[in-house]
């Protein structure tokens, strides 16, 4: 029973972690809390649904479609909504992000309707593994593995490639980076593409685990992933994963030990968030932004 | 003389134009947002009933003014105010959920505009209100139906209840069930609270599995219930599951897939067992228009909310007299509706039958009728 709940917490936590990585990427570079991130995740889920249910593509092709589509959407949102505001105060950028979020939610509501649709989960992912009384659905098992893989890939890109170096440099100082002959706008576009691709992966595996697609599905998850990114230290990729796990475990522990208070599990998760921020305002793995990032 | 005849003619014209008036009836409904599936279905019933009977006995035309609430409390209140102050409606049909309907009633009651709630089942809704009415049954009746059916007909002894504490509907239905099930000799072994909007219930179903009850009662709406059913099946929790009318929708079955086979829930009406002549005619007309026989119970209740409103307006000398319309609604006895025979009481609650349905081969199938 206890082990089962730990597995539940781990699978939920890595789900949040997967989405939180995208938040933290964009924040690290632009110091923009991209509130549209949860909605890009929703678009990823919809594209996956569209690929599997309408175009009848194989699952992996649908994942690819969702990743490419969402990455393009993320880059377009940067080009259209954020780039013109590059030198504007940060608060304008934040409000614009909320605007993009509302736009996506309502556009999907108008074109696809608010009725949740069932996502046809491939049967391989619906299998259930059993080890001595523990039951683990394959779909839940695959998320932590995927999160770890993506984390490794992102860390590799950030620390071992030239683009990664440019991204890290950009996080320090946009103007100086421009002086060094790096096209800052192009790097930012790449970051948005990467962040949105991550959101799409998160969206697809979210609907594989919880097979229902609707235009508002990104709101609550986005908020929790944001909280996870803040707990872990926003701007830090490893911190986002840690924060996601913490939020996931908190929710499961509340239900496991205090079922009467289960409805308040989000409140517990956020109280935890406040406590951590009281003692370490930059988050667990967060570093002072004026000194370093990632 | 010529002047006089012109005058007479114009007076006649005036009289005839004022004779066939257009009377506004407001509809407040969740047409988008998380509960859009229900709201759109319910509104379909209201509009279809309107298309069958667009005129009153005296020749006046009823005009429906629909406002979308997006499933939101504040939007519901704003919509009500707008309908009363700028559209001058005689009565209001709506909202969908008990939580939002309470907002509609709070405002309409002050302005003395009668409200007919098609599907809002919370007991407290009509308490202390003069202008609140409904065509559906209440939660205490619905909770008792499930409790007695499970305890007496299926001989189940222990239950786990999962409550959505963000919904008034869920809290009321859970309480009614717990009281009735305990009274019938059953035992509630565990109560777990969740809140709507969640998708991950793995921790919840693991808890239920550990408690090992005879069955589960989930008085919630379909987005959460379908996810719970799926995740329960994943961990091999194969106990009978019951819900109230909150899952009486095809979307629930689509979302739940295989996991909701055998799921049981209470409903108001089944198109396969039409309770009145009017239901038969309605089903026939509905099939002619849409090409499908399956009249959803929310369609039937939406239609009855409209029919009851029109029936009460017909019995008033002046159908625009909101006080008279409200009194006539409450005086309705043995009204042959689409969803069944409805009798109203002083409080504005209706006495009517319930049906129990079970999901078989991805369809909701009629199982039993329960009379009050």
TrEMBL record, chain A:
Chief subcellular location: membrane
InterPro entries assigned to the protein according to its UniProt record, in alphabetical order: ABC_transp_permease (IPR001851), BCAA_transport_permease (IPR052157)
Places the protein is found: Cell membrane
Membrane association type: Multi-pass membrane protein
Gene Ontology MF terms: L-isoleucine transmembrane transporter activity; L-leucine transmembrane transporter activity; L-phenylalanine transmembrane transporter activity; L-valine transmembrane transporter activity
Keywords recorded for this protein, A-Z: Amino-acid transport, Cell inner membrane, Cell membrane, Membrane, Transmembrane, Transmembrane helix, Transport
Organism superkingdom: Bacteria
Listed GO CC annotations: plasma membrane
The protein's name: Branched-chain amino acid ABC transporter permease
Organism encoding this protein: Sulfurospirillum cavolei
Automatic annotation (TrEMBL), chain B:
Protein keywords: Amino-acid transport, Signal, Transport
Keyword Transport: yes
Ranges for domain Leucine-binding protein: 22-345
BP terms from Gene Ontology: amino acid transport
SUPFAM superfamilies in alphabetical order: Periplasmic binding protein-like I
Keyword Transport among record annotations: yes
Cleaved signal peptide residues: 1-20
InterPro entries noted in UniProt: BCAA_transport, Leu-bd, Leu_Ile_Val-bd, Peripla_BP_I
One Pfam family hit: Peripla_BP_6
Record-stated family: Belongs to the leucine-binding protein family.
Protein name, UniProt field: Branched-chain amino acid ABC transporter substrate-binding protein
Origin species: Sulfurospirillum cavolei
């Amino acid at each position: 029973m206890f082990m089962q709940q730990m597995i539940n917490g781990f699978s939920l936590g890595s789900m949040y972690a997967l989405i939180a990585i995208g938040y933290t990427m964009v924040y690290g570079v632009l110091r923009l809390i991209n509130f549209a991130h949860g909605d890009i995740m929703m678009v990823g889920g919809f594209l996956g649904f569209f690929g599997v249910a309408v175009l009848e593509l194989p699952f992996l092709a649908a994942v690819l479609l969702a990743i490419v589509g969402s990455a393009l959407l993320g880059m377009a949102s940067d080009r259209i909504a954020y780039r013109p505001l590059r030198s504007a105060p940060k608060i304008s950028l934040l409000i614009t992000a909320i605007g993009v979020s509302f736009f996506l939610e309502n556009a999907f509501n108008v074109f696809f309707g608010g009725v949740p649709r069932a996502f046809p989960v491939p049967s391989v992912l619906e299998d259930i593994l059993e080890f001595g009384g523990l039951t683990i659905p394959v779909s839940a098992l695959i998320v932590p593995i995927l999160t770890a893989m993506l984390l490794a890939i992102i860390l590799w890109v950030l620390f071992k490639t030239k683009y990664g170096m440019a991204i890290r440099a950009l996080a320090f100082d946009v103007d100086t980076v421009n002086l060094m002959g790096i096209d800052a706008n192009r790097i930012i576009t790449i970051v948005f593409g990467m962040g949105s691709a991550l959101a799409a992966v998160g969206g697809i595996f979210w609907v594989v685990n919880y097979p229902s697609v609707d235009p508002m599905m990104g709101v609550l998850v986005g908020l929790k992933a944001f909280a996870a990114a803040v707990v872990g230290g926003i701007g830090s990729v490893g911190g986002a994963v840690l924060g996601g796990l913490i939020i996931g475990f908190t929710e499961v522990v509340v239900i496991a030990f205090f079922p009467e208070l289960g409805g308040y599990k989000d409140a517990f998760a956020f109280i935890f968030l406040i406590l951590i921020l009281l003692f370490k305002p930059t988050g667990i793995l967060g570093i002072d932004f004026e000194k370093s990032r990632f | 003389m010529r002047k006089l005849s012109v005058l007479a003619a114009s007076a006649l014209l005036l009289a005839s134009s004022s004779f066939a008036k257009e009377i506004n009836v407001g509809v407040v409904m969740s047409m988008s947002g998380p509960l859009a599936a229900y709201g759109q279905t319910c509104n379909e019933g209201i509009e279809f009933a309107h298309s069958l009977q667009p005129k009153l006995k005296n020749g006046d035309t009823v005009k429906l003014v629909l406002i979308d609430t997006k499933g939101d409390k504040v939007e519901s209140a704003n919509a009500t105010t707008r309908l009363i102050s700028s559209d001058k409606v005689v009565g209001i049909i709506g909202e969908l959920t008990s939580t939002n309907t309470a907002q509609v009633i709070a405002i309409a009651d002050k302005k003395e505009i009668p409200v007919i709630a098609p599907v809002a089942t919370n007991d407290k809704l009509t308490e202390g209100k003069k202008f609140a009415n409904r065509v559906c049954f209440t939660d205490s009746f619905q909770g008792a139906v499930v409790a007695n059916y499970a305890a007496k007909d299926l001989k189940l002894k222990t239950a786990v209840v999962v409550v959505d504490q963000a919904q008034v509907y869920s809290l009321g239905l859970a309480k009614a069930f717990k009281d009735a099930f305990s009274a019938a000799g059953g035992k509630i072994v565990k109560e777990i609270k969740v809140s709507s909007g969640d998708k991950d219930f793995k921790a919840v179903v693991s808890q239920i599995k550990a408690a090992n009850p005879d069955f589960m009662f989930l008085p919630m709406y379909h987005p959460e219930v379908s996810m719970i059913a799926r995740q329960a099946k994943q961990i091999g929790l194969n106990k009978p599951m019951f819900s109230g009318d909150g899952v009486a929708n095809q979307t629930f079955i689509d979302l739940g897939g295989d996991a909701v086979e055998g799921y049981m829930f209470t409903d108001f009406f089944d198109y396969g067992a039409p309770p009145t002549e009017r239901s038969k005619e309605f089903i026939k007309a509905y099939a002619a228009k849409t090409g499908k026989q399956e009249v959803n119970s929310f369609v039937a209740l939406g239609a009855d909310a409209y029919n009851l409103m029109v029936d009460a307006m017909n019995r008033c000398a002046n159908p625009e007299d909101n006080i008279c319309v409200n009194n006539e609604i409450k005086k309705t006895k043995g009204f042959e509706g689409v969803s069944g025979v409805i009798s109203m009481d002083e409080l504005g609650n209706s006495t009517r039958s319930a049906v129990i349905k079970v999901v078989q081969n991805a369809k909701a199938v009629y199982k039993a009728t329960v009379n009050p």
